[in-house]
Amino acid sequence: MGGVDPADVTAKNRESMFEEPGLPLLDTTEYNSSWAWSAGNVISMTSEMIKVCDAFVSGGLLPEPQHRAMWSLVSTEGAHWMPHAAYGLRVFELDPAVTGGHTLRGLGGSMQGSHFAVVGTADGAQTIALHTNIEFKTWQVLFRTPEAEFGLPAVEGV
């Protein structure tokens, strides 16, 4: 599995983990994300985010016409953003070609020092949430976590 083992990070190589080498460390301990409206400020616990995602995914949140509109997705291929997926109204679906035919849907977001995503089955029966305190350089975290949770084949090139 790719990624960075925290034990391998030293004072001399830490810059290679940044979005752009040479940038100083960014202390996000008291970061206020209110500039991004509700980003990260509405849902306080992972368990709450799983409930929200399950409602989004399974259709329990909106009337059927709005639910269908929300899941009218556009491929992200060629967009230099979130590979192997389609994106809708703040939601995504991973390409069944890389999920072994499973329909996996989710939502998430990131900002400086934080990345969060929730991915689950279309019926809401199985869901996993991930939160990292890094601004990731690749999509490995988003793909490797569902691979482990849902027993999916490894996605090449991520």
What order do the helices and strands come in, and which of them pair?
Elements (H helix, E strand, L loop, with lengths): L45 H13 L5 H7 L3 E2 L9 E3 L4 E3 L9 E8 L2 E8 L5 E6 L7 H11 L8
Antiparallel strand pairs: 1-2, 2-3, 3-4, 4-5, 5-6
Q: How would you sum up the global shape?
A: globular
What is the tally of beta strands? 6
Rg, alpha carbons: 17 Å
Strand residue content: 15-25%
The percentage helix is 10-25%
What is the residue-averaged pLDDT? 78
Q: How many distinct helices?
A: 3
Catalogue the unreliable spans: none
Strand order, sheet with most strands = 1-2-3-4-5-6
Largest sheet: 6 strands, antiparallel
Q: What are the secondary-structure elements, in order, as H or E?
A: HHEEEEEEH
- The assigned structural class equals alpha+beta
* Termini gap: 10 Å
Pick out its properties:
about 160 residues, alpha+beta, six-stranded antiparallel sheet, 3 helices
Structural description of this entry:
The chain has 158 residues and is an alpha+beta fold. It has a domain at 43-150. The protein has helices at 46-58, 64-70, 140-150, and strands at 74-75, 85-87, 92-94, 104-111, 114-121, 127-132. The longest helix is centred in the N-terminal third of the chain and has 13 residues, at 46-58. The radius of gyration is 17 Å and the shape is globular.
Short description, anyone?
This protein is α+β, with helices and mostly antiparallel strands and 158 residues long.
